[in-house]
Design goal:
This protein is mainly alpha-helical. The chain has helices at about 5-20, 35-40, 45, 50-65, 70-80, 85-90, 100-110, 115-135, 140-145, 160-165.
Length: about 170
Amino acid sequence: MKNISELERIVAKFDEQLKPVATRSFDFNDPEWITKLYKTPDPLDETGTRSEMETLLIEVTNHYANCDSETRRVIRSIFQKYDSVAWAATFSKAPTTSEGIRRQLLLFSILDQGKDTRDAILWLQDISTRAKSAGIQVKPILEEVAGFSSEMNKYGMGSTKSLLLNAC
């Protein structure tokens, strides 16, 4: 990723590839819907974009941690605009190191609660639980990433910054 324009171009390309999977509906009246949902392949694997997407997420999280606040705001807005990418943005391996936890929390900050604060809170709790289970001191990482995060209370349940600080 050389600049923000290139980032947006790349994210837009991924969004186009992921949109059919992200917008696929399930028949919730089907008594087997949950079984069928669990058998559905991961969106990044289904679209063959996992390797490229993970490489992009590593580059973006590295850049996000080292850029100014305006650039971070623009990065968050790109992921908000291209919501199929935001929906599918994950790393294939659960974090087990301080750097892995930090990277997950940077992605959490970039995605800025997505479309639902409740889902964001559950994800944040999962990250914190994994960190504690691995013996990682998560509080300093949460505080660091909170410093990069949005202070906007998007959905009335607190800002991303406040969610991170409250998780300490």
